[in-house]
Specification:
The chain has 112 residues and is mainly beta. It has two helices and seven strands, in the order ββββββααβ. The chain has a five-stranded mixed β-sheet with strand order 1-2-3-4-7. A two-stranded antiparallel sheet has the order 5-6. The radius of gyration is 16 Å and the shape is elongated.
Length: 112
């Protein structure tokens, strides 16, 4: 079953179009990407926010400098997994935590 394009990003790697979507929760960013030409293949990955907590008021915190998922991050995931592997796969490739394929210090950070 194909995933909806609504709310997804688009990237072309080695002439193949991929779509991707990132969603955050309390502790991690969850990423799913899929090739447009193979509706059965998906890649999932997670990434921590790698932010710093700043105290706000009584017992409250604000998290600053959170990692932002960009096309550059998605491209690196696709290349690490392998374009041909993704295109030829029928099912979900779970990469788990992907901190080991990036230099976390070089990722784009959200500003407040």
């Amino acid at each position: 079953m194909a995933l909806s394009k609504k709310g997804s990003g688009k990237i072309v790697v080695d002439g193949h179009e991929f779509r991707w979507r990132a969603r955050g929760d309390a502790g991690r960013i969850h990423l799913i990407l899929w090739p447009v030409e193979n509706v059965y293949a998906k890649v999932t990955a997670t990434l921590g926010y790698h932010s710093c907590a700043v105290a706000r008021g009584e017992g409250g915190y604000c998290f600053l400098d959170q990692v932002v998922i960009t096309n550059r991050v998605v491209r690196q995931i696709i290349l690490s997994c392998g374009v041909e592997r993704i295109l030829g796969y029928d099912g979900t490739i779970s990469m788990g935590a992907i901190e080991n394929i990036f230099d976390i210090r070089r990722l784009v950070r959200g500003l407040y």
